């Protein structure tokens, strides 16, 4: 199987004045097309830093990142923006919806950047809103939606371009357990329809939805486990 994500000796330091703070230390990671990966680890271990690199929102200090066969570690910012827009759907913990736009307009936003015409934008936004069960809330603004509905709008927005890779940083962090299950069911469907899903979570029962769990500690990969097909949800084999 082909790797959609290939990280080779990735290092990331943040620079505070003259002081370098090493956060990722020699990360090697391959993720195959259509894999479902949960990224876990203590607070401060570098999960969001790694996700931002995977999502081409930030560059590594050193190392090689091959995404979908393209070396993005040396790509100029303009090309990176295009890769980001076309290949990646990013879901943040803080939902990042625009407050003045309706749910449908928020969902359609990536299509505006991609230069898609208004009619097609509206149609495609409605299609994904249906997928996440929010067809009847398309005209609501974020402050007229519940937390779980807002998160589903954010997921719909990440899906609207049909990106190969969905990256989600603690997508259920602010949700109650019932809404979390609804959101996780959406991710399972996305993965079953052929997309690659990588999500960060602190919760073992959320990680149990993924087939593979990668654990970070202090900027290194501490373990990388595949769940057997016979494993009961919640049990890492
Ligand atoms: N922009 C930044 N500048 C300087 N240091 C940063 C920056 N972003 C993160 N850090 C530091 O890098 C380390 C890793 O942060 P990161 O956000 O990747 O952790 P995390 O694993 O996502 O934690 P959490 O579970 O709390 O979200 C932390 O020690 C943090 O203080
Ligand atoms: Mg984080």
- How much beta, percentage-wise? 25-35%
Quote the average pLDDT: 91
Strand order of the biggest β-sheet: 6-7-8-3-9-10
Largest sheet: 6 strands, mixed
Order of helix and strand elements from N to C terminus: EEEHEEHEHHHEHEHEE
What is the third-level CATH name, the topology? Rossmann fold
Identify the CATH architecture.
Answer: 3-Layer(aba) Sandwich
Distance between the termini: 22 Å
Q: What ligand molecules are bound, each kind once?
A: adenosine-5'-triphosphate, magnesium ion
Which segments are poorly predicted (pLDDT under 50) over 5 or more consecutive residues? none
Instruction: Report the helical percentage.
Output: 25-40%
CATH level-four homologous superfamily name: P-loop containing nucleotide triphosphate hydrolases
Principal-axes geometry comes out as globular
Compose a concise summary of this entry:
The protein has 237 residues and is an alpha/beta fold.
Descriptive report:
- The chain has 237 residues and is an alpha/beta fold.
- The protein has a single domain, classed as P-loop containing nucleotide triphosphate hydrolases (Rossmann fold).
- It has helices at 47-54, 77-87, 103-113, 118-131, 147-159, 177-192, 204-207, and strands at 3-16, 19-32, 36-40, 62-67, 70-71, 88-91, 165-169, 196-200, 212-217, 220-226.
- Helix 3 crosses helix 4, helix 3 (103-113) runs parallel beside helix 5 and helix 4 packs across helix 5 (147-159).
- The model has no long low-confidence stretch (mean pLDDT 91).
- It binds adenosine-5'-triphosphate and magnesium ion (MG).
- Adenosine-5'-triphosphate binds at residues 14, 21, 23, 41, 43-49.
């Amino acid at each position: 199987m082909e790797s959609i994500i290939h990280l080779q000796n990735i290092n990331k330091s943040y620079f505070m004045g003259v002081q370098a703070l090493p956060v990722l230390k020699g990360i090697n990671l391959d993720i195959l097309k259509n894999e479902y990966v949960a990224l876990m680890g203590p607070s401060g271990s570098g999960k969001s830093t790694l996700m931002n690199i995977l999502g081409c929102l930030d560059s590594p200090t050193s190392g090689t990142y091959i995404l979908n066969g393209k070396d993005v570690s040396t790509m100029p910012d303009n090309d990176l923006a295009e890769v980001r827009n076309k290949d990646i759907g990013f879901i943040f913990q803080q939902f990042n919806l625009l407050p003045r736009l309706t749910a449908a307009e928020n969902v359609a936003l990536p299509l505006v950047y991609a230069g898609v015409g208004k009619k097609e934008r509206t149609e495609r936004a409605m299609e994904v809103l249906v997928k996440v069960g929010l067809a009847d809330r398309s005209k609501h603004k974020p402050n007229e939606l519940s937390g779980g509905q807002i998160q589903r709008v954010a997921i719909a927005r990440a899906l609207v371009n049909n990106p190969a890779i969905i990256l989600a940083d603690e997508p259920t962090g602010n949700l109650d357990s019932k809404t979390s299950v609804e959101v996780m069911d959406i991710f399972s469907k996305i993965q079953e329809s052929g997309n690659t899903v990588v999500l960060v979570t602190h919760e073992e029962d959320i990680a149990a939805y993924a087939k593979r769990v990668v654990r970070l500690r202090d900027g290194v990969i501490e373990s990388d486990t595949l769940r057997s097909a016979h494993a009961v949800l919640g049990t890492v084999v």
